[in-house]
Every structure is written in C-alpha cells, then in structure tokens.
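User: Structure please.
Assistant: Input sequence and predicted structure:
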Amino acid sequence: MSRALILMYHAVDVPLSDAEARYCVTPAAFREQMAYLAHSGKQVIGLDDLVDAIRNNKPMPADNVVVTFDDGFECFQRNALPVLSEFQIPATLFAVAGKLGETNSWMQAKGWPERRLMNADELQSIKAAGVTIGCHGLTHTPMPQTSDEDLARETVVARQTLREAIGCDVTLFAYPHGAQGERERQAVADAGFIAACGTQSGFNGQQSDLFSLRRIDVYGSDTLTDFSRKLEFGANRVTHADLARYYLNRILDRLHA
C-alpha cells in the first residue's frame, strides 16, 4: 500500500456564523467534492478497510481515500448522507457518546452557534444506511486535560455508551481536538478500540501508528482546486513551493520516460 489519505469533515450545512464557517462545508461544495472524488480515479475505501490493511499487512491499491466526520451533527443525515449514497462513498462518523441528542456545548462556550447532535435513533438509521459509527469521546473534552479516572470515562465508558446506543460494537476512535499523547493512545487501546484518528496532516502508510492516524481538514473556505490539491499533497495548506516541486518532478519524470 503506497499511501492513504483520510479526509476530516465536521458540519455539512450553511454556516450559521463567521466563527463556524471554517469547519462548515456547504452542501453544494460537499457534493462537488464528492463528485470530484468519485471520478478522480482514486480508491475510496472505508476507514475499517484501511485499519484492516495496516493491522494485517494486506496489499491495497495506491492512492486510497477515506472520508470521516467528527462530532455527529444532525445536518449529516440531511445534507451529507444523500450525497455519499449517490456516489457510493463509504464514511465513518465519530459521535460524542455522552451528548447524543444534545448540542455542541463545547463549541458554544467559544461563541459558536448551537447545533444539534444526532440521537441514538438517528445514529442507528445512518448505520443501517452503511455509515460506520466511531467514538469521539464521552464529552468532547481534550483528553490530556483529564485525570486518569476521567480518561477512563472518555474511553471505556464512552465505548460502552455508544455500543448500547447503536446496538453493535464500536472499534474506531477519534481524539477530541486531536489532542493525544502516549497516555491517551494507551487508554484508547486499553478500552478495546483497534485504531484512532488524530488531526495531524499527512498520508498514512503500512507502517503508520494505528492509534495516531493522520487526517486532512476540509475547510468551508476550500475551493475545488484547494480540495484537489489536498488529495494530491496530503497537507492542509499547499504552498507555491509545493506546487513548484510537484510540477518539476512531473517534468523530470516525463523526460526520463
């Protein structure tokens, strides 16, 4: 397996404020991105397939792409799921186990607008539609800030809570805010999860740490050109120097051919 890129979305909706616009991709932009991805020639796979390939050293086609969503906003079911179904794109959604059916209180504390999170019935519905449900902690608290007791709640209790809510096992985790260290990674593993995603950008390969998988942010401000460059470069921000090296290498490859 040469490389795999994991995309990270949050809300797919019209932004309700300037504050959340960075992490809120409009439905029109999301559909354009998924259409581009579906016809890009890249292999779009589920996160569980990528994890299985890394765990068991299985060969996979080059340029795999995985689509993930953090938080479990209600707008996923309205705006993202129909598009994913249309283009037959698998996805994983990481839900905050202790806040099902509640709101994004951790964001409101920073002045962001209130958004409702999916409840257990809605998670069961999207699971039935083929979406993999993962865990995003119990309360969306940055895990390095927790005591050992609270860390167990954010991992062990969160997994149990979510498993009971959706009626099946939960084996994938995403660190709230991407915050993690050796202590947090070990706690996630001890809780029975088999892999976890962070927020550090870059590609994943056969030797990647399964408990610190890299992901690329998709921003509300991204144009389709920005999106396509993220797919190619595996970076949240592609510089002019990156582009220059890319095109120079393409020229050299053609000359050598």
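The domain at 4-256 is CATH 3.20.20.370 (TIM Barrel).
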